[in-house]
């Protein structure tokens, strides 16, 4: 498939890697994973570590989807705050969700364990777009400190320039446990670790259908029927193509990134080298690459057609934050689909021998690695932690195949309008 969105900084700076697997006669495995993003790779690796024989099927190449083109921002937690989780689900479930999603950084653990070279850096700043946003952030930081002994820095408006050279924000929370990385090189590192653990990685082949066979479900791909006792569907934005019913739970929202040329004044823009995301509904998020480019994400489109000129589409958002680099050359512009659920919590579960995890709603760089590991844990017989996620509420979008996206779009446009009205 030619990808009009592939002009990414990440693709240009990716480590060279090709899967060693060549299709032979025996295509029977314990586990078939569909999708070579963070979720599928993490699940495949964790399953192999538990002794399962595993094949991973990716229709393009490792990291082709959101995992290889995201903002690279590692933001602890979920799209809901910890206090919202506690209010909704009670103390005990909130404790487990907190331990899993905030405290236990599985990405850092994988990077350390496998020596993955992906420019990992510490520090994430949530920047307040309005004074009201800042008040809410400060209250949440105080709650996290008091309830979980989770320490972050409350940054007043006057101190924001220690992190970001713009007067635009009304304060923020700097979380040293967050960070940023080169997402495609992380995906490639996971693939190398998975292959070393025995996973067969089949790139360039699309899974069309999950089927029943005498041994249990299997997967029909372009060229083969692959037998497997368990299937893991990790196709995120494309999940409806493989499992139409699961497709009802997310809508794909297009989001775009640019990378400037390497900047002489890069360190002055982001003095603490933190990643930044602001509190608008259609947020701006940015960080520096290892070679001192500004990687900036901003603007969403509710149509699936990309803008003709991505750099021209994103540049005004960048200029609003950093007018001092208005003339910077933009070397790369790319985009991808963010799979969003109705309530912005991921949809994770199991139907018979088919496991799935999708809909991380723009907050998947950290939690997808965890999700993959929890699937492996459940498959091996300990489902307690997996069930905490599987029991999160989930609802399909209303409207059926034709109306689902337009209806969801109307809702999203309403929130985007509220951003503009301030
Ligand atoms: C532009 C953008 C910016 C983002 N920024 C951030 C960020 O800064 N921080 C953050 O936390 N999150 C961010 N996200 C979200 C995050 O990237 C995702 O939540 C996460 O990568 C999802 O990983 P995944 O493995 O579930 O899905 P994907 O990475 O999308 O992987 C799915 C894979 O399945 C493959 N596939 C699909 N159908 C088939 C099939 N039929 N057969 C075989 N293979 C198939 C695809 O080719 C793809 O490689 C961003 C997303 C986008 C698009």
TrEMBL record:
The keyword Oxidoreductase applies. One of its GO terms (molecular function) is oxidoreductase activity. InterPro entries: FAD-dep_OxRdtase, FAD/NAD-bd_sf. Residues 30-377 form the FAD dependent oxidoreductase domain. This is FAD-dependent oxidoreductase. Keywords: Oxidoreductase. It comes from the Bacteria. The keyword Oxidoreductase applies.
